[in-house]
Amino acid sequence: MKCLKFLLFAVLGLFLFGCTAAGKSATTDTASMEWRVKSLEESFLNFREKQRQMADEVVEDRDRLDQRVTDLEEKVAGLRNGTSVAVPTEETPEPPAGEGWVTDLKPEDDGWVKPEGATEPPVAQSGEDKPWADVPKPPATIPEPEVVKRKTAPKPAPMTASRPKAKISGAQALYAKGYKQYSMDNMEGARATFDQFLAKYPSDALAANALYWKGETYYSEKDFAQAILTFKEVTGRFPKHHKSAAALLKIGMAYDRVGDRDNAIFYLRALIEDFPNSDEAGLGRKELTRLGG
Questions:
Q1: Which stretches does the entry tag as region Disordered (predicted)?
Q2: pLDDT, tens digit, 9 for 90 and up, residues 168-216
Q3: Are 254 and 219 spatial neighbours (Cβ–Cβ below 8 Å)?
Q4: pLDDT band for position 48 (cuts 50, 70, 90)
Q5: Phi and psi (nearest 5°) for 138?
Q6: Which CATH superfamily hosts domain 224-293?
Q7: Which residues, in sequence order, are CB contacts of 207 under 8 Å at separation 6+?
Q8: Which of 239, 245, 253, 291 is least enclosed, having the fewest CB within 10 Å?
C-alpha cells in the first residue's frame, strides 16, 4: 500500500513538473519569436533606407554630370562663335605747351576747371562802412555757466515682499533640457537626455512626450528605421495619449520616406480611425490623398 502511494506521488510530481516546464518553454518561445520579428523588421527598414540613400546619390551624381556637360558645351560654343576685339593702344595726346584744354564745359557746370594763369576780375567795392571788417576778439577767460542743481525725486523704497517663484520639479527640468537640446539641433544630446528621463521617470505625465521627441531626433537625422520603431513604442505604451496621433502620422510619413507605400497608407488610415478629430488626422488625410490611398 505504501509503495502504491509513493508511486502515485511520483507520477503526480512528474506531471506537474512537465506542465511547468511546458509553460516556461511556451513563454520563452513567444519572447524569442517577438524578438526575431522585431529584429527582422529593423533589418528590413535599414535595407530600404540604404536603397533610398543610394537612389538619391545616383540622382545627385547624374545631375552633377549633366551640369558639367552643359558647361563644357557652352564653353565650346563660345570658342566657336567668339571674335577677337581690337583694343586701342594709342596714348591720349597731351595738349600743346602753353595752351589749356579745349572743353565745352562752362564755369557753372560741374567738372569745370579754371585754366592756369587765369585771374578773376576785381569786385567793385562800396564806400559804405563795413562794421564786420573788425571782428572782436574773444575774452581772455570764458566764464563757466552756473550749474543749477535740481532737486531729485526720492527713490522709491525697495519692495520687501516678492512673489514666490513656482517650483519646477526634477522631471520637468530634465524634460525641458532635452527639448532645448532638440530645438538647438543637438540630436544626440537630446536623445541621451530623453533616455535619462524615461529611465528615471517612466510613469511621469511627460513620459509619452519624451518618447515621442526621442523619435523625432531619429526622424530629423533621416534614420527612418529607428524613428519608426520609437514611434511604434509611443503608440504601444500610450495608445490613448494625444502624442500617439502625432506618432502614427510620423510612422506613415517615415514608411513613405523608405519607399514602403502600403505600410504608409495603413498607418495613416489607423490615425484617421483612432483620432479622427485631431490636427494630425487632417494632415494624414492630405498625405493619403497624395499617396492615392
A1: 79-144
A2: 789 999 999 999 999 999 999 999 999 999 999 999 999 999 999 999 9
A3: yes
A4: confident
A5: -70, 150
A6: Tetratricopeptide repeat domain (1.25.40.10)
A7: 197, 198, 201, 237, 238
A8: 239
Is the separation of the CB atoms in 234 and 248 below 8 Å? Answer: no
**Backbone conformation region of residue 11, classed left if phi is above 0, alpha if psi is from -120 to 50, else beta:** alpha
From the list 169, 170, 196, the residue with the least C-alpha distance to 181 is 196
Q: Which of 195, 168, 192, 190 is nearest to 179 (CA)?
A: 190
CA distance 110 to 96: 24
Residue 88 binned pLDDT confidence (cut-offs 50, 70, 90): very low
Counting every residue written for the chain, the total comes to: 293
Q: Please list the residue range(s) of the chain that carry CATH number 1.25.40.10.
A: 224-293
